[in-house]
Amino acid sequence: MQDYFVAHWLDITTTILGLAYILLEYKASLWLWLVGFVMQVMDIVLYYQKGLYADCGMEFYYIAMTVYGVWVWKFGKKRNQAPKEALPVTHFKKSLVLPWAVATLAIWAILWYWLTLVGSTVPVADAFTTALSFVGVWALARKYLEQWLIWIVVDVVTCVLYFYKDIPFKASLYGLYVIIAVLGYLKWKRSMKAVSA
Q1: How big is the CA angle at 68 (ends 192 and 63), to the nearest 5 degrees?
Q2: Which pLDDT tens digit goes with each residue over 33-66?
Q3: Are the C-beta atoms of 185 and 131 separated by less than 8 Å?
Q4: Contact status, residue 32 vs residue 24, Cβ threshold 8 Å
Q5: Do the Cβ atoms of 139 and 150 come closer than 8 Å?
């Protein structure tokens, strides 16, 4: 049993950090970005060890988006936002749907091709979750309600992928993420209605 925990310590640690992260995201707490940064640094090592190269590379993007997210949540403004008011939850702009959809498909295709070249055993799923995550983390940084819908899709696929790649704790976390994402969507939607009422 001890050998199992020693072999999976990185998986366990990042799972605990991931749980804290998603709960802070659910609460729309600025602290999610700090917890996310620590988790992302450790995930680089974990994913590289497991041959999830797109996920590994994605963590560098997450780190950059963490800096961006802190800045936007702390200093960013949206139209009709009162001075000194916290960044409000809003809807994903309709004008951004088509460009982001095209970008996501292009990123998926490029990553899929690259992963087949580097010998990934799961190029389609790894590329898909990574491409969709580009949009998800950007939408989170902008505090768009629909970011939760993106994460539901990512989390379902990632849960299955991580069980397949023998990362059981993190896989279980992503299963829990699906539930929290549904609850987060409902909570953020209620907060939008409360602000507009």
Answers
A1: 115
A2: 999 999 999 999 998 888 888 778 889 988 999 9
A3: no
A4: yes
A5: yes
Domain boundaries, given as residue ranges, for the chain: 2-81+88-196
The sign one gets for the Cα dihedral 94, 130, 39, 57 is: negative
Q: CB count, 10 Å around CB of 149?
A: 16
Question: For 170-191, what is the mean pLDDT?
Answer: 92
**Length of the chain as a residue count:** 197
DSSP assignment of 26-48: HTT-TTHHHHHHHHHHHHHHHHH
Pair of tokens at residue 96: 């951004």
pLDDT exceeds 80 at position 141? yes
Cα-trace Rg, the chain: 17
Q: At what angle do helices 32-49 and 53-75 cross, to 10 degrees?
A: 170
Find tokens 């974990």 and name the residue.
Answer: 46
